[in-house]
Design a protein that fits this description.
heterodimer, A: 425 residues, Rossmann fold, six-stranded mixed sheet, six-stranded parallel sheet, 20 strands, elongated, B: mainly alpha, ABC transporter involved in vitamin B12 uptake, BtuC, two-stranded antiparallel ribbon, 2 strands, 77% helix
Chain lengths: 425, 315
Amino acid sequence: MNDKYSIHAQNLHAGYGTIEIVKSVSCTFAPGTFTGIIGPNGSGKTTLLRTFSRVIPASGILLLDGKPVSDYTPAELGMALGFVPQDEGRPFPYTVMQVVLMARYARTSRFAALVPEDYARCHRALAETGVSHLADRSIRTLSGGEWQRVLIARSLAQDTKVLLLDEPTSHLDLSHQSDILTLMRRLAGSGSTIIGVFHDLNLAALYCDRLIMIQHGELVADGTPAQVLTPKKIREVYGADVVTSCHPATGRTFLMPIKTANGTNSAGKPLNVQVISGGGSGSDLLHFLSGKCLSLSLGILATTDTDYLTAQALDIPCVPVLPFSPIPAHALEKFKRMLSRADRIILSVHPVGTGNLPVIGALSEVDPARIIIHLPEGRDFSSYDYAKGAAAAAFENLCAAGAQCTTSYDGILQHLYPVAPETHE
Amino acid sequence: MTRTLPLTIVMIAAAVLTIVLCTFTGPAGFGIPSAGQGAADIVGGIRLPRVLAAFFVGASLAVAGAAMQALFKNPMADPYILGTSSGGALGASLAIVFLGGFFVPIFAWIGAVVAILIVWSIAGRRGVISVETLLLTGIAVSFFFSAIVSFLIAIAGQNVHQIIFWLMGGFWNASPSDAILSACILVPAGALLFFMGRDLNALSLGEETAAHLGIDATRARWAVLGGSTLLVAGAVSIAGCIGFIGLVTPHIVRMLMGPDNRVVIPACILAGGMLLVISDTLARTFFSDLPVGIITAFIGAPFFIWLIHQRGMAT
């Protein structure tokens, strides 16, 4: 009835004994797609995958290629659907080839021997996952990553249209992760239906066309990685704070666990800290400060500045201005109001030209005791001066007037909390 | 793979040779005893059935051991260690005490089935079975059934000798009908397990894996349990409890020929048969007909300890 989908699940319920793990899941998987199933620990991702492969009995409708999965004979199922477990016990010293050849059992009568084509298919599968050189090794001598690639090779040798993978890269190093997932993309590209459970959200976002998010056994989000991996959704489902952004190299959604700024301090009002930076000098500093229960603000910054992107990602208020144009008066006014509210002002020394010199100039109106100047180790003010000495002079004047100067982040912390210099992560 | 065929030929030759040599070996030394009707009777009427019965029983235990090891995903499994033999002995004892010795094989089979179902339901249900759980469950079941057997001995009265025979394990009274009975069980059950070789291979990686590879895992599991308990029951009803053949033989076979059960099962038939025939010949020739179970335990127990030691080194 639903021939265009490889897997069509409707109102699927499954569990172990009386405990229901998968609750009312409805979704479809089309040929030629690579879908990632994500969700926190214990949310039922693996159980859902095993429900698809029929090893866990389920109620509801489950169609495989338009036909109820319960109508398949075991051998038919072995030819239609492959499954890669996260790990598998290895009590007996089979050779790698012997294990991979088991993929061909479903296609051969028990009274017949495997034919050369079976061996050829298995050798090709070993080559595809890069384990040809292990063909004659005992599986008991393999590392976890090698064994995982053998298990993937075995499922490839089954020649199925649908491939289910339970955290296929959990034991793999960086380069093998990308090899295997690129291979999966290629298989999807040639018409296979690939469904994988993923722990690493960035890997899932990078390689999957579509993500399905599971929480407490229920489907809570379904869509492209960009649609599913929003900071809001991640906070709801994983209870973790992340920032999302577009990866510059791949253009794909990319996220990073982070404590966002402006958390409140239970001991009272957080310290108001104004950070002045530019040209990327503040990105790392903002990240460092963002976990420290400070009320941060930032400015003035051009919208093309890396620091501006950081501020957006970390949700830090900022005074933005257009790039390559003089700072408008209203922006400077707003900036000065922020300065007057700030308990502390951190000036991260950055390249200053005539365009942004007014920003530094505004600091001369502030009590220098509130100013902390961060100058990276081994640099001097003049190397940041692009205003024919005016910028360097402005920095020097602030120091002379009594601003605190430091070369390290720890130094900044000590000036922020002069009484109790203990730091909490 | 390439050395499977020559090894098989060598093993078949060795098995035939073992049967012949052991038939002509006895307390009187090697060779055909000095001519006469009595001598022919000894060789043809007593020794040959005994050697054949020992061969078939050894083969049955070894095949059952190999199949159980695959099913339990555990190379430490064995009919004796898992309590299957004790279950069989209990069934046999019940038949002896209450039915005067009739239906011994059937009761032995029921006892073996009950024992393995108990072990399976406790230790084998889901996921990886740890060696500890498996062995402890087997030992517990074994002890429990042995306690019932001891109770039966206490109340058995005149049948006490017959029961003690089961516990020791031996071929003193092996008759031609024993040899035929054991062959009648070994041939179909051995063939079943032989043709399930690839199911056993897949099952030894886990039932779910087997299902994902297109094996009817549930049916295969019951077939393997049924076939192997049948073999154990046949062996127990003929020779009582003989330990360690089912453990040691598959290990030796895997060392020689690899772990593929399509090779291991037939090789176990030959190797298990040979091992028990040789053990029994040693027992009756050099130890004034000591129960062969004592000999196999003498060889098997140290081997078992060595295996545990090897595993400890490996992990």
